[in-house]
């Protein structure tokens, strides 16, 4: 159907399929909803003090709106979800990790400076120089708590002077009838007592029975002063410990110290340089990278783990290749019967989830009850310490990883060997060549080139084989003298994990620096893999 444009006299095409218009409007509505959702995330992250994440979703929302609203970018709509996913789950985490590596981000430097200041200002302390003894009196109306002032502050500090002013002229307080059976914290108002206490005081044995309930009571005087239990027979006032000065520093009212914000370390520090935790993250430049190579307590374990990581990945590739290639060659033997059964049995370890196999091997290598030690003890009278001796633990890891990885090499070698023309072997037989000649002159030269990129990929995978280490040894036995949690069987990736999540300090900055180095190594291997693959093509 065509309509005439009155201004130019040209026909204008109108879609004869209304469903197409509805589909376009539905797509525009979906895009608008996604953009609004992303803008809501931007606002939420911004209000929660996360500007980096807010900027990330702002860029994604803007890119989504531009790509799906401009006709010239129509061809990019199909690849946009993949690019956005890569930016969200690969590029951004990588850049975020690299950024953390240049900071002192850790469990002690976790909050922002504003939140650290607010947390310090919210701290209180008990002024035990002005205590109140108490008694519980039971009467017909219920149990009342009577407090009588025992000590007075010396007024040597500003806080004690304010406390004396708040308690001036009042020495006894009393609560109204109440129940002391509550197990949750409660605020109870108290008033100055007039006259003698009503009822008989409860004995110490009965007071002890109410101890949990008394500890949960927060007594508030008419002036707003809070009293909390400071002993079995005492309550003490709760005072704000820190106050803000005009220059932004904090004054410690309890100890009389002045705290200033140190932008280089990310802590409030005293005049003597003592740090007050918690702190906030600050930029430290290349300090984390320098610690890896200059701090002897970190450099030694790092180099040892680095060498073992390379050795573990290399030996795993060599062992799995040898086992897989030998088994693949045997399965090509013409006189071998039941090849299908043998193939199924040999590939079976590849079908079992890796974590199940690892846990089974962990039980089999148990020093006291494992089947392997029981067999070795029965045959040779030895029980190796697989999990406490460093070299035995590493040998165990190589054995288990070879068992897990040889089926993959078996499949690769079987496919490559089967692609070799049989004419070459027949010509070799005519020339008098034997099995070794065929192996070194025909088979290996023809499969090594297409196999090289796959071997590099296998090396990169085992370079970061975190699951095997975490489930089998946990990195143990530990390296003595290390300032960070480090084990003789740790790989770089498990070493990084332990620094970030198992160390008492949780040094995320140092862990991010090591993770950045791992990325550079693996990225180099990936580039080498691509280069070899291009040469192969």
From TrEMBL:
Domain ABC transmembrane type-1 residue range list: 306-529
Membrane-traversing stretches: 25-46, 52-69, 78-102, 305-328, 340-361, 396-417, 454-473, 508-530
Principal subcellular localisation of the protein: membrane
Gene3D superfamilies hit by this protein: D-maltodextrin-binding protein, MBP (2.40.430.10), MalF N-terminal region-like (3.10.650.10), MetI-like (1.10.3720.10)
Signal peptide (residue range): none
Membrane protein topology class: Multi-pass membrane protein
The protein's role, per its UniProt record: Part of the ABC transporter complex MalEFGK involved in maltose/maltodextrin import. Probably responsible for the translocation of the substrate across the membrane.
Protein family according to the UniProt entry: Belongs to the binding-protein-dependent transport system permease family. MalFG subfamily.
Subunit-structure text: The complex is composed of two ATP-binding proteins (MalK), two transmembrane proteins (MalG and MalF) and a solute-binding protein (MalE).
Protein name according to UniProt: Maltose/maltodextrin transport system permease protein
Species of provenance: Billgrantia aerodenitrificans
